[in-house]
Amino acid sequence: MPTVLIVGAGLTGCTLAYRLAHQGVGSVLLERGDVPGGLIRSEHMGGVLYEPHGSHIFHTEDREVWDLANAMTPFNDYRHRVDINVEGRIHNWPILLSDIDRQSRGDEIKAELEERRDVDAAARAEASNFEEWCLELMGPILYERYIKPYTEKQWGRPASTLSAQWAPRRVSVRWDNDPYLFPDPFQGWPAGPNGYTDIIDGLLDHELIALRTGVDVTLDDLEARAREVEADSIVLTCPLDVFAGERFGRLDWRGIIVRNVHIPHVEHAQGAMVVNYPGLEFPFIRIHETKHASRQQCEGTVLGFEFTNAPTRYYPIELPENRALNDRYQDFLRGEIGRDRVHFAGRLANYLYIDMDDCMRQALDASVEVLDGLPAPRL
Ligand SMILES: Cc1cc2nc3c(=O)[nH]c(=O)nc-3n(C[C@H](O)[C@H](O)[C@H](O)COP(=O)(O)OP(=O)(O)OC[C@H]3O[C@@H](n4cnc5c(N)ncnc54)[C@H](O)[C@@H]3O)c2cc1C
Fold it and tell me: From atom 49 of ligand 1, which residue's Cα is the shortest distance away?
């Protein structure tokens, strides 16, 4: 029977192993951490379900991916709403017209919005950077309050040096006062006892899947590991620069770290699952409280304070030189491991910010590529 070696047991690696197993192909997942699940893993603290790496909301238009996730765990009907602390008061994020009256200089803000109301999206898309795009959407007062300090805390550089490319997906003003963040038809949060960990455990629950944890794979030891499990094909879901010994240099990421604190004796400690803190007077950027989405009935809660500028690999810095460097690593590894023998999937190996549904989609697509390339006949 053919065997696939998968480096990394995050959502991408686990989804791939699941799909291969259901096509009769075995896989061995090698995971650096002590447990599988990568960024999406949920844990318990003081009996409260929380997310050590920050809150995750499953939202997608992809029916196949949604059905697969639901086959692993039931989902509740949570819809994501974010709060934001502006001028010391809580408002909705994205910006709602109905929140403007509760802010200082409300009439000036409304006049600035009105002036820009007829600028169409195509014209705004011509903006040369993120700051210009936002100013054209909302005017300077809202921009200075909601966007500029948050963005500069998040990225550690002036918003005028960031690309406008992501702005339409991240920033909006809601004239219809719709408070929910995502428009996708399928949304929710895992309703089982262990949150996203139930998805991971469900994906791995197959006799054709073997998981080995505490194994940090590098290019230097890859072939020995592949021989040991008689792998016909290799899928990398790990960061390629680290894997290849950084021989062409290091890929640039913006990292965050979430410090989680158990708060006893209260049901909730804030009004929404995520509250943004754009002000530079706050050393953190967001506070997470998964309990709003998990709807767990218990005493106590867990707050996760998110700090930026950590040495972790969370958001790729989308610059042409970084994209070229990741492409160079992929080409190099195809040459070293074999063009038809190695495949790349997930956020790390493709140097992308992708949501969970996209990474499951990448895993399903990668399974087709892998199955096509396997030498032995499938069962
Ligand atoms: C701050 C933040 C918030 C997010 N919020 C959402 C959200 O609300 N909704 C949503 O849909 N998505 C969200 N996402 C995206 C989601 O987290 C990712 O799509 C998903 O976790 C990616 O899974 P992955 O398997 O590709 O990567 P990872 O989860 O990073 O898994 C990679 C795995 O590979 C292992 N590994 C790495 N190197 C090696 C090695 N050399 N050898 C062995 N193992 C290795 C790691 O330990 C890890 O377990 C968010 C992401 C971030 C950063």
Answer: 38
d(CA 243, CA 98) in angstroms, rounded, equals 50
State the closest ligand 1 atom to the C-alpha of 349, by its place in the atom list counted from 1.
26
38 lines ligand 1 (CB under 6 A): yes
Of 269, 296, 316, the residue at which a domain comes to its end is: 316
250 pLDDT above the threshold of 90? yes
Domain shared by 210 and 339, yes or no: yes
Q: According to DSSP H, which parts of 7-85 are helical?
A: 11-21, 63-72
Q: How many domains does the chain have?
A: 3
CA–centroid distance, 9 to ligand 1, in Å, is: 9
Lowest-confidence pick of 19-23, 77-81, 315-319, 344-348: 315-319
348 touches ligand 1 (CB under 6 Å): yes
* Sequence-separated (6 or more) residues with CB below 8 Å from residue 62: 186, 357, 360, 361
Length of the chain: 379
| Model confidence band, residue 150 (pLDDT cutoffs 50, 70, 90) | very high
Query: For ligand 1, is residue 94 a contact (CB within 6 Å)?
Result: no
Are residue 304 and residue 345 in the same domain, yes or no?
A: no
pLDDT band for position 378 (50/70/90)? very low
Secondary structure class of 378 (helix, strand, coil)? coil
Mean pLDDT along residues 301-308: 98
- H helix intervals, the chain: 11-21, 63-72, 97-100, 106-116, 121-124, 130-138, 140-142, 148-155, 167-170, 196-204, 219-228, 240-243, 291-294, 320-337, 346-349, 356-373
CB-ligand 1 contact for 352 (6 Å cutoff): no
Amino acid at site 217? V
Q: What atom of ligand 1 comes closest to residue 306's alpha carbon? A: 1
CA of 279 to the centre of ligand 1 (A): 28
188 CB near ligand 1 (under 6 Å):
no
The yes-or-no verdict on residue 125 having pLDDT over 90 is: no
Q: How far is the CA of 48 from the centre of ligand 1 (A)?
A: 22
Instruction: Tell whether ligand 1 has an atom less than 6 A from the beta carbon of residue 361.
Output: no
Clarify whether residues 133 and 218 are in a common domain.
Answer: no
325-343 residue pLDDT tens: 999 999 999 999 999 999 9
Query: Which residue range forms the structural domain that includes residue 170?
Result: 97-174
Whether residue 306 is contained in a domain is answered as yes
